[in-house]
Amino acid sequence: MSHQLTIALAAGAALVALAALATGLYAQRPNAPASVGGRSPTPAAARRAVDSLLADFAAPGAPGASVVVVRDGRVLLERAYGLADVDGRVRATPRTDYRLASLTKEFTATAVMLLSDEGKLTFDDPVSRWLPTLPAYAHGVTIRHLLTHTSGLWDYEGFVPDSQTYQVKDRDALQLIQRADSLYFPPGTAFRYSNTGYALLALVVEAASGKSFARFLRERVFILAGMRSTVAFEEGVSTVPRRAYGHALQGGRWVRADQSNTSAVLGDGGIYTSVDEMVKWSRALFGHRLVRASTQQLAWTSATLANGQPGGYGFGWFVGHDARGLRLWHNGETRGFTNGIVVYPRQRLMVVLLTNRLGGAPWETAQRIAELYLP
Questions:
Q1: Confidence of residue 7 (pLDDT cuts 50, 70, 90)
Q2: Does any domain span residue 53?
Q3: 173, 19 in Cβ contact below 8 A?
Q4: What are the residues facing 339 on neighbouring strands?
Q5: Side-by-side strand order, sheet with 65-71
Q6: Burial of 126 (0-12, 13-18, 19+ CB in 10 A)
Q7: Strands 253-256, 247-250: parallel, antiparallel or unpaired by DSSP?
Q8: Selection from 177, 203, 155 nearest residue 9 by Cα
Q9: Rounded mean pLDDT of 42-59?
Q10: Contact 202, 70 (CB under 8 A)
Q11: Do the domain assignments include residue 257?
Q12: Domain for residue 171, yes or no?
């Protein structure tokens, strides 16, 4: 994920959120298929509507997409389109594993929340307690600031040249920000989306648990949630069972574009999973199988900035409200993958759309799909 891409995504998400709050954009989009008379569509009608929205992914020889709609633990729709691997002509299925990119952040936040529930750390711990080599200029930054993107830390990607051939890891992010000499702003005073924050959270989890971040996720999150095929991928260490490969359109044809020099950083975007596994994640979230209900509510509550204004982000989730109440969402984009998730906690509704191509706005499409199932 490049520095410029991170800023663009954050700005875009913020603009979408403001538009939603100001105009009721998500209450009903023009030309978007919607429920009729407050009732959900029939399964056949919903399938036709979703097929229409995702028709581009079904084009011959094109990289694909997988989508799932879950309400109260029950799968309402699960579909797949196109190819998981264009070169190998491997079709995408609901069990295809995509790189989540920034949808990873809700899992990283959950790991931190687990440790908080166990008394291993607190959200208001200075990060320097766990990472003693944190630059002196950042000693006022807390774990809560990292979770809510209010730390003011510089983006580590900005210190990684495009020409670099080796991949940086979470530990390298801590070293890279040593090159800065200040924060963007005093901690807690503003929101600025930060992949650095979530790379550092992975290191905090390791320090507080005594386990590698990938192992902690596997043992304490994935297995307990029933997500046995989900993995925080480490080249040469782990494997992705049914791996989708990322693609980009070049010269009118789809070519594999699967890894960047920051793709090995786990805390901000390194998880691979499928929409089928995300059904289990939905059940774990709404059933509070991993963290206390009160702790989960913190994750779904916007941070409050020093001036009393909402920051718009909780722990691993963008947070807002529309005509249906509390709305959570996240976008995810890295080389060759673009994803979106939308959750309405009151309705216990989750829509996940994962794609193995660069470009588009699947988070917007996920919202349009969610509107099919909302009264």
A1: very low
A2: yes
A3: no
A4: 332, 354
A5: 74-81, 65-71, 349-355, 337-344, 325-334, 318-322
A6: middle
A7: antiparallel
A8: 155
A9: 95
A10: no
A11: yes
A12: no
Domain encompassing residue 74: 3-101+113-119+213-372
- By percentage, how much of the chain surpasses pLDDT 70? 89
Mean pLDDT value of segment 126-140: 97
Asked if residue 235 lies in contact with residue 266, where contact means CB atoms within 8 angstroms, the answer is no
Number of domains present in the structure of the chain? 1
**CB-based contacts of 228: which residues, under 8 Å, 6+ apart?**
222
DSSP classification of residue 321: E
- Residues of 320-355 as b/e, b for ≥16 C-beta within 10 angstroms? bebebebbbbbbbbbbbbbbbbbbbbebbbbbbbbb
Element (H, E) at 4: helix 3-23
Q: What is the pLDDT of residues 97-112, one digit of tens each?
A: 999 999 999 999 999 9
In this prediction, residue 57 carries a pLDDT of 97
Residue at 20 is within a domain: yes
pLDDT band at residue 41, thresholds of 50, 70 and 90? confident
CA angle (187, 193, 194) in 5-degree steps: 75
CATH number of the domain encompassing residue 277: 3.40.710.10
Q: What is the mean pLDDT of residues 114-137?
A: 98
Whole-angstrom distance, CA of residue 300 vs CA of residue 252: 41
What's the rounded mean pLDDT across residues 274-294?
97
Q: CB neighbours of 250 closer than 8 A, spacing ≥ 6? A: 257
List, in order, residues 6 or more apart from 368 with CB less than 8 Å away.
29, 32, 33, 53
Nearest-angstrom CA–CA distance, 240 and 319: 30
